[in-house]
Design brief:
five-stranded mixed sheet, disordered N terminus, 19% strand, alpha+beta, 401 residues, elongated, five-stranded antiparallel sheet, single chain, 12 helices
Amino acid sequence: MSGFLAGLCVAVLPLLAAGFWLGRRTVRPENLGGLGTPVEHATFETLHTASLAAPPLRAGLTGETARKSARRLRTLLGTDALCLTDQDTVLAWDGLGEHHRTEIMERLGSPLETGRGEAFRLKCDEPDCSLRWAVVAPLTVDDRVHGALVACAPRESAVLVRAAGEVARWVSVQLELADLDQSRTRLIEAEIKALRAQISPHFIFNSLAVIASFVRTDPERARELLLEFADFTRYSFRRHGDFTTLADELHAIDHYLALVRARFGDRLSVTLQIAPEVLPVALPFLCLQPLVENAVKHGLEGKTDKSHISITAQDAGAEALVVIEDNGTGMDPDRLRRILAGEVRPSGGIGLSNVDDRLRQVYGDRYGLVIETAVGAGMKITARLPKYQPGVHSAGPLPRE
């Protein structure tokens, strides 16, 4: 879908450039600024103006985003006035003749209902108003009309009708991309909720049972474990921010491992090797903890001898390299491939596919998990985290209660 939308944008923008040039028709050579011919200059101006109008529209169609983009859109069309509406009201008006707001909304019934453009003559008793004609182009997303772009001019123009339609289609593409962004955000939020819901009930029950076992024999130990449990659950169920820092995620993992070691004692050993310079790196919330829980599960499951888990975080130039390795039972590589592809559900706990999907959504397909495993050979999971990614910012430290 995103590839189709990008292609549509590429196809529409040259048409916008042509409309911009035809609407203005004359460009003084002395104002070209070394950009070449008038057509080349008009194309550059159109692309630049479109790039300035796009960011507000990527946040959806609201009063604020309409106000920020209306002036740029009017520049694209070279018209005397332009307004953006939703289904009920004029969200923003730029240019002359704002007193036509009510008349235009009264005439939008058919275009908003049918999704078809329309042009009509304006009625005006104002002697100083030059607007006599309005062109309506609906804004549609997934065959639903969200509002309309209305261009007003002193006279009827076939060029304006075509250009307004092209600009409206370009705006509709931006609104559809905004809708996709919102859907992506909702998906990430749903996946975080799924991760929280999948935190093993057995882990919670066993942790509380271990704490209870120390209450009489070692009250101070029981108190320490209870604090570890409280800090871990508070982090896991926090409600602010989609991203955290590597330092905070590792801190939560430390609480989790303290509870696991209290239960299994000498059967589990853990080593950590963390480069201080990667601690501030931002990453998706609850991204590494499920990988450690997976290592604990497969490291201890079906084994009577000691298990070992190593966690390393290294500086790798523009990236942080996090490796989680266990010497447990491992997994059949073909079964792992099918789990990551969503073809097979994991046997229990938090699936690796959830974390893999979230990393790919945030950073791109190049940053999925790299997993090396075989039956009886343990498992090694590598996660590469860019030190900087647009839109990825930690919400800050967890507030203390």
